[in-house]
């Protein structure tokens, strides 16, 4: 079956419109079906306990103080602290049991007989059952008592501090804010056990698993898990048939002339683009060092290898987990993005031989702007959490949502940066853009980069006062659609561009391959975001939709892996292929993408597994293998390729980069498969046999076997840090052997450009 580029382009356009319709309708439904914030929560005597404003202010306290990067809400956030929804629900049931045991039997719950405990349990479940009919939330006397006790506990824990839990003193700086945060958490607990009007399940589809509150997995979770497994088998067979049936070009070094690095001229704009690399490397090194600290916090929650006890240095107070986690996440996004931006500005001259006027000056300006936004954003996170910006904390300080931690001002700066990059890319690619159709390779690069910027705008559709369910709806547009949509699109586009620049693939052939894989990525990864909506307060219509599209997300990853293997074969066709080292990174990216995003992602996205697993260490394994393994290795591969072209002929030495490559791969393998995933499976068992709150408790993490597995992460983390240090040191020494750029470039100076520009 021969597919033409124009045909694929039409199908991509149709898929885009379909995605827009489905997710646009989903946005409307999100606002209609979000759990209601009542005007008041009242006790049995009608006295007001909580107002709607208290709940909204509690959400503000949650974001302002970075609590989403200490624990999680509705299963989303960090896994170090408690999940506030599950924790407050568990505490609510425990205090209600205490109340009824004392009222009915004049004794503690644990002292009651089995029959008496069963009677109390039934009373608690009876209080928590039923649907919301509008108006005020009316508490029973037991619920009122429980809410008051949870308030006090959260004040003691999050205001006064709890080193056992890794909570620094004054994490929430006032008792009033801590009480309102408790009100917010208890509201999420309320809608997790309260049925929707006319429905059979709670607003969260009965998540989290809490037998004492009557929460258990729904029949839909089981049914659609089975359907997803069947669909996977069918999709695998269909994928094999599709791969064999569709005539896609294979990279080949046999018939094409692969240019030697020394035959390719380096222009001023490319030297400017190279400056993104050391900046990104510095961010990368800071990220992995913080990652080591975060991993150790699970073992020693108030110190770092005894530093506090020996030297009296309060590590937890100086650098709380929430701040370190926030910086760790943001640095990971920033160093990968900075590298990709640099690569996107380095490659165009290879294909066009075109150097726009003052392009290098503009690239330097973009880099400077990125540095300003990075420093401002990371600094604002700390200053905002310390209360320095007053009511402007979420604008110039920290917005406090995972992956969208920086304030709106800095998010606007990043968005403007994307726009400047697009303008510079258009200037650099203009000779190709003028010659090719709208579905050409140069256009695809711009579409991929533009989709990243476009999806980022979803982060501006909410404020700290927005309902948490609606906030999560839009936040996942950015996070998931970036990672499993736009980023995957950018991967296939940038790899296609690289293959063309190496003369391994003609431009027309690369266009077809990129478009086909982009079609698969965009057709599954966009609507696939819906698997994040199962337990956050969205209606249960997303369970079947998310199950189907999450399963199909594995299909494009199989194609990307096949592509990587095909590239490996092309690389092996000739013993003199000069770019083996960059290809090692690109192939590793494809393998880790399949393993991390594909295999591990599919497993935890089965609804029945995700119901118990949501927000555990299994997700940590999936996230690290996918983010660093797929996107990080691609970025590092592009760095290697750029450096190999930019180093003086005869001075290239890839030995240090090769050593770093193996340190990273072995380290990531050890971290994920020896430590992180085993902890995740133990958590899954704890959730199955107890409750979700038990699987996220300090007691679980303090078990000897879990602590041993945390220590087992040390070799892997050390290798990753060592590899990054080697990489940073290698960049310093390579700085002194860079080639001079051409002052007056022409197409004839490029070993690749003439062939590409002539490829009609």
Descriptive terms for the model:
transmembrane; two-stranded antiparallel ribbon; 760 residues; Cyt_c_oxase-like_su1_sf; membrane; mainly alpha; Nitric oxide reductase; three-stranded mixed beta sheet; 7 strands; heme binding
Mean pLDDT comes to 88
**Helix percentage:** 55-70%
Number of strands: 7
Question: Which structural class should the secondary elements be placed in?
Answer: mainly alpha
Strand content: under 5%
| Intertermini distance | 22 Å
Envelope shape: globular
Low-confidence spans: pLDDT under 50, at least 5 residues? none
Total helical elements: 30
- What topology, given as strand order, has the largest sheet? 2-1-5
Major sheet size, sense and barrel closure? 3 strands, mixed
Q: What radius of gyration results from the CA coordinates?
A: 27 Å
Summarize the structure.
This protein has 30 helices and seven strands. It has 760 residues and is an all-alpha fold.
Topology summary:
Elements lengths: L4 H29 L6 E3 L5 E4 H13 L7 E2 L2 E2 L6 H22 L8 H15 L8 E2 L2 H19 L15 H19 L25 H27 L22 H7 L1 H22 L9 H5 L3 H4 L2 H26 L1 H5 L6 H27 L7 H5 E4 L2 E3 L1 H28 L5 H16 L11 H34 L5 H19 L16 H11 L1 H19 L7 H25 L2 H7 L3 H30 L8 H35 L2 H4 L2 H4 L2 H8 L1 H22 L18 H5 L3
Parallel strand pairs: 1-5
Antiparallel strand pairs: 1-2, 3-4, 6-7
Helix pairs in contact: 1-19, 2-6, 3-4, 3-5, 3-6, 5-6, 7-20, 7-21, 7-23, 8-12, 8-14, 9-12, 9-29, 12-14, 12-24, 14-16, 16-17, 17-18, 18-19, 18-24, 19-21, 21-22, 22-24, 22-25, 24-25, 25-28, 25-29
Protein name: Nitric oxide reductase
Keywords: Membrane, Transmembrane, Transmembrane helix
Pfam family, one: COX1
